[in-house]
Amino acid sequence: MDNVKFGVIMTTLGMGGTLFSLWLLTLVMSALKKAFPERPETPAGGAGKEAGK
Questions:
Q1: Helix (H) or strand (E) holding 3
Q2: How far apart are CA 1 and CA 4, in angstroms?
Q3: How many CA atoms lie within 13 A of 14 on its CB side?
Q4: Which residues contact 42 (CB under 8 A, 6 or more apart)?
Q5: What pLDDT sits at residue 40?
Q6: What are phi and psi of 42, to 5 degrees?
Q7: What is the separation, in whole angstroms, between the first and last Cα of the chain?
Q8: pLDDT tens-digit map of 1-53
């Protein structure tokens, strides 16, 4: 196998691996968003002000 062929194969595998890992992270983040939905913020003068301390 010459250097050019090896380089093209490694580049293709590297790009594919990167895209696969980004896709996997997207699935994990989507699952976490569904498991822990974002709560609406409480007003500044509300009872939830103490909880942030």
A1: helix 3-35
A2: 8
A3: 6
A4: 48, 49
A5: 87
A6: -85, 155
A7: 63
A8: 899 999 999 999 999 999 999 999 999 999 999 999 988 887 776 565 555 55
Q: Tell me which residue of 36, 39, 16, 40 sits closest to 28, measured CA to CA.
A: 36
Give the Cα separation of 12 and 34 in Å (integer). Answer: 33
CA separation for the pair 37, 17 (Å, rounded): 30
Rg of the chain over all Cα atoms, to the nearest angstrom: 23
**Amino acid making up residue 46:** G
Counted residue by residue, the chain has a size of 53
